[in-house]
Amino acid sequence: MLNFQIQSDSDIPASRQLFDQIQFAIASGQYPPSHRLPSTRQLAMITGLHRNTISKVYQQLEEAGLVESVAGSGIYVKTQERKVIADSDSPLIAQSRIIEESIEHLLQSNCSLLQIKELFLEEIDWRLSCQAKIIVTVPHRDLSAGEIMQQELTKSLDIPVDLVTLEDIDQLIAKTNFGTLITNRYFIREVLDIVPPNSFRVIPIDIYDYSKELAMIKTLPSQACLGIVSLSQGTLDIAASIVHSQRGDDLLVLTATNNDHQRLMAVVRTAHTIIAGPSSYDILQQAIVMARPDLIRIPEVICSDNYINSKSIDLLKRELDIK
């Protein structure tokens, strides 16, 4: 799990460091929907920041649609999707209880049993119709993250998955009545603001939490050089910020996208350890082979797990009724 750390001598403002760390904790599922965030007093003790600064960060997170304030209770991770699937390890009786509670709630809302039946059938029919077209959507500014998601989902789900930028969703909706839009939690608020209710299903996924990589980073020797390679520039920016929050200037961090050959070769020649996602691993290995004659030492290469959290893949298969 991520430990919140603020580097006071960083060029990155302290408030931005904290925002990035909390955002990552939410996007990677470490802070799941409905999770209560630490109070401003608790975070002040952990980070050394003033409570007013922390309050402003929480306000920014709320404006971004990631958290919500509950009067007299605290700040909670916002639930962006309807919770309809029980955990795979839950006993059948627990699932039955969820259904019973839902029916009881609807009865108290003056619905008849016949009306409830029709509501359930309509919902199921709508979900089934939405399975006909599966689309990944992300803002154009981080199209590469969408490409990673598209690759991984096509392979994991073994079905065609399209990629449409958030800026083009309006055109898609004008042509198609139903479908399933998949995005990660970094972009869920932007997607929900655009997609009309009862049209496309919107399902957010959690990204990999990089816990193994973060644990390894803590063991790197002082003044070591860490390289990070990814298809997504947005992922690199967040990764560099998170690493800096954990080690400060004690580590030199170099990043490169797959298609930036010059920067990639600089990472290969300089870094002691390089972390790469599955979509970048082969390209990185090719770069190392090219640079081998000039290398004093071969960098250690660590291939991280898939960008999408494995639990999110399992949930998607159940959401989409894929065996």
Give a structural overview.
The structure is a single chain. This protein is of the alpha/beta class and 323 residues long. The protein has three domains: 14-32 and 34-77, Orthogonal Bundle (Arc Repressor Mutant, subunit A); 92-207 and 311-319, Rossmann fold, CATH 3.40.50; 211-303, Rossmann fold. It is built from 13 helices and ten strands. It has helices at residues 14-27, 40-47, 51-63, 92-108, 113-130, 143-157, 169-175, 188-194, 211-219, 233-247, 261-270, 278-291, 310-319, and strands spanning 67-70, 74-77, 134-138, 162-165, 180-184, 201-205, 225-230, 252-257, 273-276, 300-303. The strands form three sheets. Strands 4-3-5-6 form a four-stranded parallel beta sheet, sandwiched between helices. Helix 2 packs across helix 3 (51-63). The longest helix is centred in the middle third of the chain and has 18 residues, at 113-130. The chain is globular. Residues 82-90 have low confidence and may be disordered.
Topology:
Elements: H1 14-27, H2 40-47, H3 51-63, E1 67-70, E2 74-77, H4 92-108, H5 113-130, E3 134-138, H6 143-157, E4 162-165, H7 169-175, E5 180-184, H8 188-194, E6 201-205, H9 211-219, E7 225-230, H10 233-247, E8 252-257, H11 261-270, E9 273-276, H12 278-291, E10 300-303, H13 310-319
Parallel strand pairs: 3-4, 3-5, 5-6, 7-8, 7-9, 9-10
Antiparallel strand pairs: 1-2
Helix pairs in contact: 1-3, 1-10, 2-3, 11-12
